[in-house]
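Dear support,

I submitted the protein below through the web form. The confirmation email said the job was done, but the results page showed an empty box. After a refresh the structure appeared. I'm attaching both so you can tell me whether what I see now is the final result or a partial one.
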Amino acid sequence: MSETREGGWLHATAFEFRHRFLIISGFYAVGFGLLFFERLTAGEALLRVWVRDPTKGQLQAVFGAGSFLVALAASIRTWASAYLPSAVVHDIELHDERLVADGPYRFVRNPLYLGNLVMSLGMGLLASRLGYPLLVLGQAIFYRRVIGREEKELSASQGESYQRFLAAVPRLFPALSPRMPASGKQPVWPQALLGEAFFWIFAFAEAAFAWTLDLRVFGAFLAGGFAIYYLSVWIQRPEAQRG
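What the results page shows now:
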């Protein structure tokens, strides 16, 4: 029986997991690429449901709310990354030897994926009307599959301790109070801020767009974001792998 049939739709294949970053990039590429066929962004279309002729201030408010969501996503990811080695956060392989129950992991099992979904809600406002639901719902389904694979592998490798973690901590909707006792692990904030710089630049880029409503400004911030992100990943690699 194939891996896909064994796991069902709730479990990603090895190919999907290994190439998850590329697949998520594809969702964004399609969501924003559809703007070539319809020039109206999802944020403006949403506003026009209530306001026939939106003012500049109203548009700024909508995209400002979007930038807040992206900043919230970056905050969640930074908090989570502070408790994980950078190699785990950015690696394409599944690390089934670790169980983290500190920081945000006491409230939600998958804070990194939660941050990604919150980001799609905010960034998607700049995508097309058709691209927005594709971006948000497509990612939600895909991350559920990725999480299913991770949980299967971690359950097999860690046994009862992980089963207790699954039973106590919600998968994607955070609990209002900690569900696990803290182990006392200290966060590493410089590593986390550097590793999540890409997400923070997206937040700043959308905030700049909300202020100016100028896509050229947004593009300039994104260009800087890509540069900072790949530089941060390169810096965090072991010296022998930098080439």
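Response: this is the final, complete result; the empty box was a page-load delay. Confidence is low (pLDDT under 50) at residues 1-6, 87-92.
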